[in-house]
């Protein structure tokens, strides 16, 4: 067998594979012998069928299979051994029919798209902003309010006010305003604050247990998902609902009284007892909030790195080859014109992939199984701590991590997370980062604009 590769032209090359009969004949014979051993053909005992009959029936198909196996093995061995950096996968140059019966030597040609040789230099002259998100007083106070509500107490007042939850018996009415005996009937909670229209909200204020209200549900409750849950209907049933008028009979009023921001609450939230004053409580919330925001800041940095480097590092791709390869490799039927529409975005994504791979290579970033297990253990431990389980045996953590990594999807997901973490450290080291303080609201606005 002879394999040759043409010189690159427009970032494409041709790999030519010449296959002779001696390259595959022994394997074909071995397969045919196995076929003969198991063949059951009328007129012959099992295993005694003449080889001439076996060859006549199976030799062509076996030859096709063995030559194709040989081609695939040889093609990818050539690419690996010669370190040919390909994009996409090799494509047969033509679909010419091969005369498998009358020929024994064959020539195959494959077209390959070649990846560019990249040189990536990042220095402190390359500047990016790193946004340190600060928790302002408004955000901290909102967090305090949420915590106070979470640890608050529920009461059942005699009359409703804004913010209350009204638990009602909801019954469908007929055209004359009477309860429809075979109609819809369900008990559900109405959140007064969820009613946006002031006129409709007013109907649920200053009401008492046993009060009855006639409500046009589609006018008052504009959120279809909430309304379907309230009436215990599917979305389709809600759309086909003929009667919009329902009677709401108040069963009870629920009011959540937020907990006081005092030592009792502080000890519940932080059981170690180190938080004693409201100022310390707010400082602790501020620290935790700003720590959690680092994930968002890192995500923004990664996004900015991608945009910066794709714009800075100019190189070509074998676009013509890649578009044809996308047409051929797509699971759904695609035309070249359809591919051309989305190709610019695909091209940017591929360019970034090549840039990042080169950065990983230059900085010797690798992940072995031990790295993956250690990283997974940290993820598991962090999740356990969120549920209050602070002490976990290392053997138990290792067993859990190894079990998680047996799932290929989870393994791939966690590997990507670890690669992101490692590359982020590289970007922070290579780029000059301008540290900028920003409020959470302004950061959200900036992220939305980007």
Task: Explain what you see.
By secondary structure, the protein is α+β, with helices and mostly antiparallel strands. The chain folds into three domains: 2-114, Alpha-Beta Plaits, CATH 3.30.70.1050; 153-257, Chitinase A, domain 3 (Roll); 268-315 and 363-449, no CATH class. Helix content is 51%, strand content 18%. The protein contains 15 helices and eleven strands. The protein has helices at 21-38, 51-81, 137-150, 198-202, 217-220, 224-231, 235-239, 263-269, 278-312, 319-329, 336-362, 369-386, 394-405, 408-430, 440-449; strands spanning 2-5, 12-19, 86-92, 106-114, 127-134, 153-155, 165-172, 185-191, 212-216, 245-257, 432-439. The strands form three sheets. Strands 6, 7, 8, 9 and 10 form a five-stranded antiparallel beta sheet that branches. The protein has a four-stranded antiparallel beta sheet with strand order 1-2-4-3, sandwiched between helices. Strands 5-11 form a two-stranded parallel sheet. A hairpin with a 6-residue loop joins strand 1 (2-5) and strand 2. The radius of gyration is 35 Å and the shape is extended.
Question: Which runs of at least 5 residues are low in confidence (pLDDT < 50)?
Answer: none
How far apart the termini lie comes to 55 Å
What is the share of helical residues?
40-55%
Mean pLDDT: 92
What structural class is derived from the secondary structure elements? alpha+beta
What proportion of the residues form beta strands (DSSP E)? 15-25%
The major pleated sheet works out as:
5 strands, antiparallel
Order of helices and strands, N to C?
EEHHEEEHEEEHEHHHEHHHHHHHEH
């Amino acid at each position: 067998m002879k394999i040759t590769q043409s010189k690159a032209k427009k970032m494409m090359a041709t790999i030519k594979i010449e296959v002779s009969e001696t390259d595959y004949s022994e394997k074909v014979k071995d397969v045919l012998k196995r076929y003969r051993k198991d063949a059951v053909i009328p007129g012959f005992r099992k295993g005694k069928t003449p080889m001439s009959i076996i060859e006549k029936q199976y030799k062509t198909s076996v030859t096709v299979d063995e030559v194709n196996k040989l081609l695939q093995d040889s093609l990818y061995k050539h690419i690996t051994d010669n370190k040919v950096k390909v994009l996409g996968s090799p494509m047969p140059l033509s679909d010419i029919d091969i005369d498998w019966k009358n020929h024994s030597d064959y020539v195959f040609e494959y077209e390959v798209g070649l990846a560019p040789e990249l040189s990536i230099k990042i220095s402190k002259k390359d500047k990016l902003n790193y946004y340190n998100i600060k928790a302002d007083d408004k955000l901290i106070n909102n967090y305090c309010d949420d915590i106070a509500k979470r640890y608050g107490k529920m009461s059942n007042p005699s009359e409703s006010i804004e913010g209350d939850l009204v638990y009602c018996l909801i019954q469908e009415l007929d055209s004359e305003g009477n309860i429809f005996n075979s109609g819809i009937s369900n008990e559900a909670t109405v959140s007064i604050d969820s009613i946006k229209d002031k006129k409709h909200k007013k109907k649920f204020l200053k009401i008492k247990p046993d009060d009855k209200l006639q409500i046009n549900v589609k006018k008052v409750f504009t959120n279809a998902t909430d309304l379907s849950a309230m009436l215990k209907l599917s979305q389709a049933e809600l759309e086909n609902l003929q009667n919009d008028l329902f009677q709401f009979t108040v069963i009870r009023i629920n009011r959540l009284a937020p907990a006081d921001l005092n030592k009792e609450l502080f000890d519940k939230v932080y059981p170690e007892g180190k938080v004693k004053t409201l100022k310390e409580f707010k400082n602790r919330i501020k620290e935790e909030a700003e720590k959690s925001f680092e994930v968002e800041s890192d995500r923004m940095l990664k996004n900015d790195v991608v945009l910066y480097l794709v714009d800075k590092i100019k190189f070509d791709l074998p676009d013509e080859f890649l578009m044809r390869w996308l047409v051929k490799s797509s699971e759904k039927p695609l035309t070249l014109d359809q591919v051309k529409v989305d190709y610019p975005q695909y091209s940017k994504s591929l360019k970034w992939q090549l840039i990042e791979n080169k950065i990983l290579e230059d900085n010797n970033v690798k992940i072995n199984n031990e790295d993956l297990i250690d990283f997974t253990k940290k993820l598991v431990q962090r999740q356990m701590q969120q549920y209050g389980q602070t002490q976990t045996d290392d053997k138990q953590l290792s067993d859990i991590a190894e079990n998680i990594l047996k799932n290929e999807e989870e393994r791939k997901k966690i590997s990507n997370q670890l690669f992101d973490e490692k590359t982020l450290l590289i970007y922070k080291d290579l780029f000059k980062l301008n540290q900028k303080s920003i409020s959470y609201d302004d950061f959200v606005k900036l992220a939305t604009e980007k």
